[in-house]
Amino acid sequence: MPHKLHFKVIHASGQDDIYRASELNHHSPLTKGWQSSRFCLYPQDMVIQLEARSRLRKIQILSHQYLIPTKIEFFVGDVPDGAPLTLESARYARLGYVSLSDNEKTGYKARELKSVHVDAVGHFLKLNIHKNHVNKHNLYNQVGIIAINVIGDSLRRSYDFTDPDLLLEDNRVERDPALEGLFNKPDYISPLDDLAFDMYQDPEIAQIIRRLERKKQEAVLQERYDYAKRLKQAITELQKAGLVNHYLGEEYDYERLVGEKLGKMEVEKRQAVENEDYDKAKLKKLQMDEYRLQIYKDLNLNDLLELSGSRHPQHIDLEPVHHPVYTTPPPRLEELPPPPPPQQPRTPPRYDEWPLPRNKAVIEASEAPVDDPPPPSPLPLETKPKVSTPQTPQDKRLPKLKALNVDDELPPDPDINQEVEPMTEVDLREASTAIDIFGLGLVSKAYSKTWSYREDALTAVHHQMQQMPTGNKEEAKSMMRAAIFLVKRGIDDKVYAVFKAALNLLRMILTEFVPKHKLGKADVTNAVEKSIPNLFHKAGDTAVRNRDDAKSFVLDMASFPEVKPTQSLTHECVKPIKLTLGPRHAQSRCELVESLYQKFGLKNGLTMDNVMKFNVEGLNHNAGEVREVIERLIKLMYKNHGAPIKEYLPPDDEKTRKNTLWRQLFEYFDQVDGKPSRSDIKKLKAEEEQKKQAEIDALHKQLQQLREMNAGKAPVDASVLKNEPTKKAGPVKKKPDTTKPKSKVKTKAKDDDDVSMFTVDNICIFCGERNESFTEEGLDIHYWKNCPMLKRCTNCKQVVEIATYTDHVLNECEAKSNFSKCPRCSEAIPKPEYDQHVSEKSCNPSKSGTNHCPLCHENISAGEDGWKDHLMSRTGCKQNPRRLLALNKPAGGPVGAKAATRGRGGKAGAVRGGKK
């Protein structure tokens, strides 16, 4: 039958210093896995060598939760006969590939297990790992693999598919036909060889389960069915006891487990060691030992495994059951708790050669009468009701070490010393003020190495401050300063429970204690300035949960009624960051400023000046993720406030735009302003030049044909005698009743070569300007930018005639619901300003028989000539910036009022070309 194949990684094109490729050689719940180097080149190659030439039947890959490759290709490598077994002599054949999900739907908390069924023979397996899926957690574009599992059959002779007995390690003799189905399953893969079994089982429990499985097979062959049933039940109970996680692909959540305590306690013990809480580590270790002994006693393990001798000593020749590779052999019970020495070999003997973990306590427990009392403090097999715990993607080992929950703490062992350790001289001097207020015992707990004491100290301060009577303001100030000192230590604490207790205490001080005792702004400002640096540091913590809680608290604190008037928090946030500040901390500061701006705008201590100075410093940071946040904030501010933002940035010129960062910002500014980008302008000019050249070529061709017709060398072609005008596709929408006369090529009797280059298409129908460059695209640019009779609507960005601008805003504009018509001056007034505008009566009233200019608010002469004179003459409208541009242009010469007013009549003068 196919079984787990032992292998060793012999080549990797890159690896992280902490997550090395050798981690893939071993399967256990604490395996860290492999990660590529930061910003590596793709694809990454990895080669594993099997113990012997094998037939591969199944390959399993457990991917990282957010360092996820897009695709993995598989190649099997074999060595030609007579060639040395080396990596260089291997020849590879491609098996195929698998694609991996980007994991966005799970919030980057699940790990995908891919199982690929193959049929190939070789000594090597090569993985070609392609580029990563991009997400916010993968800062360095890495890929990661937690574990690899290969299942197949070892080959002892030449590979031949026609040999039915090839896959049996020895050609066993015939058995009872009724039992043939137990072993004659060439494609059957045992669940104990699956990757999930080793990655989510306690190693010692996994060893015992395999031995019980072997005993069960022997019992079935010996027809001891009651014994086989007991073994099956024991295997089920052990799997529940040793399981570290419910199922593959779900982040560890302790409170959801029912009876699965052992893996949880192992993780908590390791977490306590990392936090240097050795009392808790010792307690967890003792609880684990007691739990194991209780399980062995309840299952009567010694009797199940017949350690005192089998009642059926008949030898059964079974195919060996294969097992995973562990870093060290599982410890025996009499050797617990010391770990195995480091000099032991990494590859243990086969599990069936291991002696069963035996302990005097186990034997005595199995032989004790029923009335004997149970061992002290046994762990129950059931767990407490589940409590939801926030889950965050973390780059940790499979059991998430940070996801601890103190609700499952068991009663401490009475033999363990529970006294608080004394404070050092340095600590006593540092905490002298707090000791004077809260006493040595409470402050000693705040300095204890046991995190539960530190949490208790902050909780005690919380209650003591809530119960303090009012009346003595000086005493309240002293207590507040001492409490802030302890809060600062609590915020910096590595244990999440202590950090949360510190946040709760600080919240109570600022929202309850300060108003209760009527403390002043100076005390609030001092509390904020003392604690905010610690909150900034925590907001850049490696743990996502700590970062999110710290940033959320800062945003809440900015809205506290006692903190908001002081504006001290916002001033601290917008202080320019140092370029030496780490990327994670700098990014968190920038995100805080962005969130504060989104929440308050330029209020509550945020001004254009201090925010933009903060942004300019942030743009100089060498971390790309910091600059991305700043760019996002600058774009948001420009969208809200416009041109004043540019005063804090370098000048918008060609030299500045050579820098990618500034080019992207200025192009976004142009887009917000409705201007075409420089690339669009270049493209427009190129197309315009091409059309000009095409028109010139066409005119030359017509001229040549006219000459030929005049000389009688060519027949008269009716299509030559008229020049069909091109249809306008620009932004100008003419009146339906206006049509363009077809322009004919004019010839003079005196000189046939004198052909006019101008047509009606070369004339602006609004201002009457005539220009050879007024082609289809040239007129669009003229309307959008230069025509003195037109302007862009500030609300919808459409190009509109100035004469009909007021009617457009009131009746046609997308924002017409935001305006009302003033009965005095007849102009469009924004509704928020309408009441004040009407009540002040300061506007210039419109008069009948005149036109009213929406730019300068003056009454002008009636009719089209009145508009033309007012908007285009030297003494005309002072508020029309295009008037001076038109006057300073070299005169192409208007063609008269009739042409200038063509296509405009009455109120229908809007130029609708879409937004520019």
Q: Taking all residues together, what is the mean pLDDT?
A: 75
Radius of gyration: 42 Å
Oligomer: single chain
Instruction: Please estimate the helix content.
Output: 25-40%
- Unreliable runs: 157-183, 244-259, 311-417, 714-759, 892-916
Number of helices: 29
Number of strands: 15
SSE-based structural type: alpha+beta
Shape: flat
Percent of residues in β-strands? 5-15%
* N→C terminal distance: 71 Å
Biggest sheet descriptor: 8 strands, antiparallel
Write a concise synopsis of the structure shown:
With 916 residues, the protein is α+β, with helices and mostly antiparallel strands. The protein has 29 helices and 15 strands. The strands form 4 sheets. Strands 1, 2, 3, 4, 5, 6, 7 and 8 form an 8-stranded antiparallel beta sheet that branches.
Which descriptors apply to this entry?
916 residues, disordered C terminus, alpha+beta
Tell me what the structure shows.
The protein has 916 residues and is an alpha+beta fold. Helices cover 39% and strands 10% of the residues. The chain has 29 helices and 15 strands. Strands 1, 2, 3, 4, 5, 6, 7 and 8 form an eight-stranded antiparallel beta sheet that branches. A three-stranded antiparallel beta sheet has the order 9-10-15, covered by helices on one side. A two-stranded antiparallel sheet has the order 11-12. Strand 11 (819-821) and strand 12 form a beta hairpin. Helix 10 (432-438) packs across helix 11 (440-446). It is flat, with a radius of gyration of 42 Å. The two termini are 71 Å apart.
